[in-house]
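Fold this sequence, please.
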Amino acid sequence: MSRSVLVTGGNRGIGLAIARAFADAGDKVAITYRSGEPPAGFLAVKCDITDTEQVEQAYKEIEDAHGPVEVLIANAGITKDQLLMRMSEEDFTSVLDTNLTGTFRVVKRANRAMLRAKKGRVVLISSVVGLFGGPGQANYAASKAGLVGFARSLARELGSRNITFNVVAPGFVDTDMTKALTDEQRENIVSQVPLGRYAQPEEVAATVRFLASDDASYITGAVIPVDGGLGMGH
């Protein structure tokens, strides 16, 4: 059955791979993006998730075209890495407002229809850094760790309505962002990963699609690492 799926930040990297995975399975996929040109083949809605009015307008556009959102993948996020002593308050709050509060905004809006339908799938994209920590990433790590508490609280709050909330925590993924690193930086990262390589975006997408499938109907409140063993034990 074709479902109405929304992937925030679905215009590149992991988000685009997730959007393609659902589209390949026959779902109706909408993506949000904040800048640049969106990829073809999806209902692309420009939306800054730090703005509640833009979130509301995006949902109206998606609902008019695809019906109520049945599967939400909260992927949109930003980084503003900086050592703590050099990190401005704006560096900290803007990352939290996008990655954590922005997720709150899109999840809350999706839950209107999910509560009425008494079913839904929500997957939040966190990071190994949220569990493992990262120097110069206090803002990003705090935002991604916050997603775990957020998802688990909602798993308890809304489990009786057949709405599941799960978290996927990718490690280092082969995207444009990591391609910009130097060879030395890439080698240093890979040396810490037991599997000895970066993840492909499609590997993260496969885990997300599983959590949104009927096969995962009894999984909620879980944190699934897709990190090659980098953060095991956390």
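The chain has a mean pLDDT of 95. DSSP finds eight helices and seven strands in the chain.
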